[in-house]
Recover the amino acids of this structure.
């Protein structure tokens, strides 16, 4: 990092990088600023940068009109629920693959990854019909199940790469001391791998929160998550600019914050450990 | 090490994950395959029975299929070119000595965390709307006629939105790869008198090659299934101008209730994805023991 360059060069690079970064960020900035404008100001012929009449009424209006909190609640239930369920199934599997590998472990891992490659549209119709017959359409249970299944390979892969970094000797020492498998996992492995498990949890909550294929196709009114909620704003254009921004801001703010914390793990998680 | 007992235990611990994924992978796929050979329409329940290849011929023979296939290729290809070239450039820039690197990283990665429908609606209403979008204002500022992006250039507009979402991903991965390049190697090249362009071609690019491959493959998997961005902006139109294979299946199967034809389209999507997956698996698999 400590390359010697002149101050002028550094200033040049800094300006260029900030200019491009802010350009990329401008749509998000637009949402943040517009959310606090009045509708009239939002569609004014001469656009304003900062809100001239700072208002919070858009947030209230969004809640009154479309029940933001219900959709946010649904998003939380589905993203957190599916991630916890995924960890429950994934931790034992990752333990087995990392600490008691067999000849086929590598094949099993690759196969799990391959399930992620299946395009959602390839199975949309059967899932839709099965859900219709089991009355799972537009339910949080149904959505949580789907979300668990689509993120399970990533959960197992991430856990596997983190578990691999823990020396097996420590687990074996616990085993020598007569620790049951349950205790070995709950009292030795999980505390040691906690940072890795936390990153896995964070990344998968983000992925599930932003998932927009199954949430849109399988829900309508009751179990709609924030992705479905926002999509419902696609038809009534025009007058909704400030309210749309307020709704958008509410939908992306929590995940943006979580994303900033987990950006390093994101690289590892989404490349399946291939780039560290 | 692996005694018979731990091996049994290992299988038991893996069983739940393997079983649910096995069901998830096989059951719906077999059903799609089955439906694709059936006459099955939710609108016309009288039409039943074995259809042979009729659904496939119907889907593939329809002009909308060819257009959707071409659109899919343009969409995936366009976004890949923008994100890989732009991402490489941006990663190189962010790797230079500059002030505020940590904050810059956070700012640049942000669009990736914006959920697809929000990203699409921001661009649709805030930027690309000819009346009050920011691009419209910009065009007017320069005395130009504002462009009605989604009607005049529907596919291009979708490409812009999707590229905006994935450029941060490519940048972040490539930046991570770039930062793992040892300083000694760079300095050695510099001392040997290699100029910036030579250093890029002979040192940096070969080092990044594998990460670029991985970025391309992973993005392709996701880009083949682009859905929400199309759903909330153009609805696949005008006509089929911005319909990709994923959206065509949704249109045929769910919106038009033609289960048989929709399933045949779904199987085509599966075949396309498998070709890509084959290469991705090889790239990732090679690295598994490293």
């Amino acid at each position: 990092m400590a390359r010697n360059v002149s101050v002028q060069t550094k200033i040049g690079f800094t300006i260029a990088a900030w200019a491009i970064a802010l350009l990329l960020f401008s749509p998000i900035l637009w949402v943040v600023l517009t959310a606090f404008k009045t509708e009239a100001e939002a569609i004014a012929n001469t656009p304003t940068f900062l809100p001239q009449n700072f208002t919070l009424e858009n947030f209230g209006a969004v809640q009154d009109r479309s029940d933001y909190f219900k959709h946010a609640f649904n998003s939380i239930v589905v993203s957190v629920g599916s991630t916890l369920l995924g960890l429950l199934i994934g931790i034992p599997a990752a333990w087995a693959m990392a600490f008691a590998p067999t000849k086929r472990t590598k094949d099993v891992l690759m196969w799990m990854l391959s399930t992620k490659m299946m395009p959602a549209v390839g199975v949309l119709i059967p899932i839709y019909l099965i859900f219709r017959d089991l009355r799972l359409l537009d339910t949080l249970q149904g959505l949580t199940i789907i979300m668990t299944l689509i993120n399970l390979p990533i959960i197992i892969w991430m856990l596997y790469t983190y578990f691999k970094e823990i020396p097996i000797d420590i687990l074996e020492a616990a085993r020598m001391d007569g620790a049951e498998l349950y205790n070995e996992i709950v009292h030795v492995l999980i505390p040691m791998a906690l940072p890795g498990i936390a990153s896995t949890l964070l990344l998968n909550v983000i992925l599930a929160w932003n998932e927009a294929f199954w949430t849109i196709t399988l829900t309508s009114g009751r179990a709609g998550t924030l992705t479905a909620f926002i999509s419902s704003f696609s038809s009534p254009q025009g007058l909704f600019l400030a309210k749309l921004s307020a709704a958008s801001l509410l939908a992306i703010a929590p995940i943006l914050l979580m994303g900033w914390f987990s950006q390093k793990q994101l690289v590892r998680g989404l490349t399946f450990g291939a780039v560290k | 090490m692996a005694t018979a007992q731990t091996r049994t235990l290992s299988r038991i611990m893996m069983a739940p994950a393997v079983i649910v994924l096995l069901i998830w992978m096989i059951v719906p796929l077999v059903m799609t395959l089955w439906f694709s050979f059936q006459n099955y329409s939710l609108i016309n329940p009288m039409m039943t029975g074995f259809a042979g290849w009729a659904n496939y011929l119907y889907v593939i023979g329809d002009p909308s299929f060819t257009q959707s296939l071409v659109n899919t290729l343009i969409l995936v290809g366009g976004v890949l070119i923008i994100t890989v070239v732009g991402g490489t450039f941006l990663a190189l820039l962010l790797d230079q000595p500059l002030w505020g690197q940590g904050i810059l990283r956070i700012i640049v990665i942000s669009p990736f965390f914006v959920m697809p429908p929000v990203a699409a609606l921001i661009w649709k209403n805030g930027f690309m709307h000819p009346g009050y979008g920011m691009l419209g204002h910009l065009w007017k500022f320069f005395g130009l006629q504002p462009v009605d992006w989604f009607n005049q250039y529907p596919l291009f507009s979708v490409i812009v939105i999707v590229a905006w979402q994935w450029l941060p991903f490519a940048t972040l991965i490539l930046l991570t790869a770039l930062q793992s390049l040892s300083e000694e190697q760079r300095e050695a090249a510099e001392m040997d008198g290699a100029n910036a362009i030579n250093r890029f071609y002979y040192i940096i690019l070969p080092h990044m090659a594998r990460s670029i491959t991985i970025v391309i493959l992973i993005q392709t998997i996701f880009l083949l299934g682009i859905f929400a961005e199309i759903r909330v902006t153009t609805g696949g139109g005008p006509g089929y101008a911005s319909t990709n294979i994923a959206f065509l299946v949704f249109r045929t199967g769910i919106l038009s209730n033609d289960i048989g034809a929709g399933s045949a389209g779904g199987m085509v999507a599966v075949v396309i994805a498998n070709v890509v997956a084959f290469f991705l698996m090889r790239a990732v698999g090679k690295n598994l023991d490293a």
